[in-house]
User: What shape does this take?
Amino acid sequence: MPPNTSPPPVWLITGCSSGFGREFARAALAHGFRVAASARDPTTLGWLAQYPDRTLALALDVTDAGQIHNAVSDTEREFGRIDVLVNNAGYGYLAAVEEGDEEDVRALFETNFFGLVAMTRAVLPAMRSRRAGTIVNIASVAGLAGFAGGGYYAASKFAVLGLSQSLARELKPLGIRVLIVEPGPLRTDWAGRSLKQSSNFIFDYEPTAGHHRRETVAHSGHQSGDPARAAEAVIRAVLAEHPPEHLVLGRHGYWIAEHQLRGQLRDLHAWRALSVSTDFPELPAPHRDAPDVYIPPRAGT
Assistant: This one.
């Protein structure tokens, strides 16, 4: 068999100044890939200089349409294409729902959700034309299970989850894959310097949202998840012949996801009779127990 002479794949990764994004870039380079790494402050990407032939450092705020256009154009001009987009840029925000500041919440969604949407839309035309590519969207186990004090962050990640599932079904026939990554707690700056919190504290929420705020900050730097191992796991999933649609990361994340999904199934089964009783009664008897809702196949199958 002749050797593979095709150039290495190109990964465009957002939010690479530290933490998970930086580990993604390092892992991709260790695999021999070409990497366009971005950060709002590109001076944090100086370490890329040791890979001059395979890297591109980009200034990118995912809430800035002009910078998104430039980042995608510069990557395609430098490397010819984008094979994998990793939508990693984002940050945490803690507040009870009543405590949240509207301006802060809208800014959170601009980065965590709308920035991800804009990046995805920017790379899709070229991927569609090639009928190839992968979109990796970093959601969170908080996009599966909401926590007291984390409602707004969870909402932004639930939005990523719903969008990504629909996107996967739209893109599968076009040869483009979508991987939804749901990390549990990782030992990054997410709960440290990158974390934002409402300055408003309401005493009645002290045992719930207040407790979760304190616990999240106290555990910063002691999370069980290793971002380097997590980045390698994502690359393994992307390279798999039959990749998953969802990839949960970490023992803690796995437990949260399993607990949440089992609880939802218990409610679903326990309240089935009431759920199905809301149909029109003239539905023919032989079909009353048959599902009449289209359940799409998983994007990976």
